[in-house]
Amino acid sequence: MSSPSLKEKLRTLPSKSGVYIMRDTFGQVIYIGKALNLKKRVAQYFHSKRSAYNAKIASLKESVCDVDYIETKSEAQALILESKLIKEWKPRYNSDLKDNKNFLLLRVELFRDLPTFTLCRTRKDDNSLYFGPYVSSQKIRQMLSLLKKKFGIISSDAHPKKFDDSYILYDDARADIYSLPNKVSQKEYLERVENAINFLQGESKNLIEKFTLEMQKESEALNFEKAAKLRDNISAIKHSLAMNKKSETLSSPAYTSKSRALIGMQEIQKALHLSEEPNTMECFDISHISGSFCVASMVHFKNGLPVKSKYRHFKIKSFIGNDDFKAMNEVVFRRYSKIKDFPDLLLIDGGVGQVSSTLHAFAHINRYPKKIIGLAKREETIVLAEDFSEIKLPKNNEGLKLLQRLRDEAHRFANSFNAQLRSKKIKESILDDFKGLGEKTKSKLLIHFGSINDLKKASIEDLSNVDGISEKKAASLFEFLQKLS
Fold first, then answer.
1. Dmax over Cα atoms in the chain, in whole Å?
2. Residue 50 domain-assigned?
3. 272 and 349 share a domain?
4. I want to staple 71 with a disulfide (CB 3.0 to 4.6 A). Which of 18, 51, 199, 214 is the partner?
5. In this structure, are 348 and 294 located in the same domain?
6. Torsion angle of C-alpha atoms 378, 382, 384, 387, degrees rounded to 10
7. How buried is 330 (Cβ within 10 angstroms: 0-12 exposed, 13-18 middle, 19+ buried)?
8. Judgement on whether residues 108 and 203 belong to the same structural domain of the protein
């Protein structure tokens, strides 16, 4: 650890809980860990006695050139974030958390006629609603038991039977033990599910106050067993509230729930003063790297949910370079000049400039969608196309969350297509004939210079300024490129 800049960075680490991220000379993430005290924990890796007896740590110490960190509010939150980042980046020095061991999630299986509440460890794209993750399996199991007793919902251990227009939920002793009716219609049961979801999404705070008062009364009456059960319920609810709050800060909102999607559409209708809910929505996003590999994406949502068969991507054809406005004008025109049915709502990733470019495209088509808006990411501000006025919705507004989901999906789809093109161009590159260049280094060269033609014009000094290219390799590469000119 000879780098003065790294030593200085280690000295400025906070004495707080969080996750630390170690990188090598190429900026690649090579190790991720959690800490109750970031400053003390990271310093341990560079203690001479510790590394002397551990080959893995000694090797890691040799490879580390930079350390980043993310502060968290608690060690439990750091544990969740560490697991999430390790699974995403798969650093080569991490081994303990590379398996499929995840924390428990509470899944509401909304795709069933009678939605069930179950525990699982992984999220699936199955039209379920997920809560968590939960560090304590005991607390979430207590929470599930409480939900079943208070709201009358069922889990996977129930095998309901249908009779005419009603369902019998249990055919054993639970039919008499549980306080709510065992025979219900589908509509009645769905109301129970909605109440349980609302409880998980925040109304549980009121129940904590109620249980606290009941616990005090039972304790004063010397009914300690009942008081203990109420105490356990309060603990489980508080744990659920804390973990759901942490989960919202660590991951994007999941709009697989039909009910939440419908609420989002209603909120959008209200905020934009639409005559009806926007049943069909499309969103465009532009993706490029310093003007190179410029592409666009379009995603389509129906009833608040993605319809991937209607996704489209575009290569920018009318110009070369970095101009989001021109790119947006081009792809909007190409898309809507060929179809008759426009979406109820068109969302553009960007502010006034991108929205203005979109309007220019529709002026040439001489037809417009019912509503065009932009979503400026810095402040998550909605820009109205008709007068460029702005609307700012609360962060917890379901309409805003649905628009963010639409925008983020367009961004993901555009970046994915961009990566495909870069990978294809790298594989087809003349650089394949130059021995000693890996895929990552070829990618860095093409991104840095933009094209093979510009790469050929580069000097030895220019080439050596690219990460991973030594002066010796730059000289060899320069000679190789000159022969191709």
1. 94
2. yes
3. yes
4. 18
5. yes
6. -60
7. buried
8. yes
Q: How do the pLDDT tens digits run along the chain, 485 residues long?
A: 446 678 888 888 999 998 999 988 777 888 999 999 999 999 888 775 554 456 677 778 888 888 888 888 887 778 878 887 887 788 888 864 444 456 788 888 887 888 899 998 877 766 678 887 776 677 788 888 888 888 899 998 888 898 888 899 988 877 776 778 889 998 888 888 888 887 776 655 565 676 678 788 877 777 777 777 777 767 766 765 665 555 443 333 333 355 678 788 889 999 999 989 999 999 998 876 544 557 788 899 998 888 888 888 888 787 766 677 888 889 899 999 988 899 999 999 888 988 998 999 999 999 899 999 999 877 899 999 988 999 999 888 889 989 998 988 888 787 765 555 555 554 445 666 677 777 778 777 877 776 677 787 888 988 888 888 888 888 888 887 776 55
Other C-beta atoms lying within 10 Å of the C-beta of residue 111: 11
Structural domain of 435: 429-484
Tell me if 361 is assigned to some domain: yes
Looking at the fold, whether 279 and 358 belong to one and the same domain comes out as: yes
Question: What is the pTM for the complete model shown?
Answer: 0.40
